[in-house]
Amino acid sequence: MVKAALAIALYVALVVVAIALLVRLLAGRIPGVTITSWWRSIPHNDDVGGLPGSLHILGWAVDIVPVTPEIEEQARKMFPVVVNEGNHLHAAIFKA
Questions:
Q1: Predicted TM-score of the model (pTM)
Q2: CA geometry: angle at 32 spanning 27 and 38, to 5°?
Q3: What is the pLDDT of residues 28-56, one digit of tens each?
Q4: In the chain, fewer beta carbons within 10 Å around the N or the C end?
Q5: Hey, where are the domains in the chain?
Q6: Tell me, what DSSP letter sits at residue 49?
Q7: Which residues fall within 8 angstroms of residue 15, CB to CB, at 6 or more apart?
Q8: What would the mean pLDDT of 14-41 be, rounded to a whole number?
Q9: Half-sphere CA count of 58, side-chain side, radius 13 A
Q10: First CA to last CA across the chain, in angstroms?
């Protein structure tokens, strides 16, 4: 029973990390962007005013700059959720 629980926990952790890496890779493929935030610890998320339960905590969201119509269009092609926050674009795999 313990081995099965550990195997499931390891599998879940690997899936979380794989999705986080995919998010980072997708954002990095948008020409001309800088990723200003990706994976955050809970304390860091609190320090920067992130929402509780932010997808940044899992690495499943990125913030990118600069905000231009072209970059926003490219981000919307790659991510299901893109929010123009004014000074950056928040892109994520789903709305938290």
A1: 0.89
A2: 30
A3: 999 999 999 999 999 999 999 999 999 99
A4: N
A5: 2-92
A6: T
A7: none
A8: 96
A9: 21
A10: 33
* Mean pLDDT on 18-29: 96
Task: Give the whole-angstrom CA distance, residue 83 versus residue 17.
Answer: 23
> Greatest CA span in the chain, whole angstroms?
53
**Strand pairing category for 81-84 and 89-92:** antiparallel
3-state secondary structure 50-77: CCCCCHHHCCCEEEEECCCHHHHHHHHH
CATH topology of domain 2-92: Muramoyl-pentapeptide Carboxypeptidase; domain 2 (3.30.1380)
State the angle between helix axes of 2-28 and 69-78 in degrees (0 to 180), rounded to the nearest 10: 150
Instruction: Give the Cα separation of 63 and 84 in Å (integer).
Output: 10
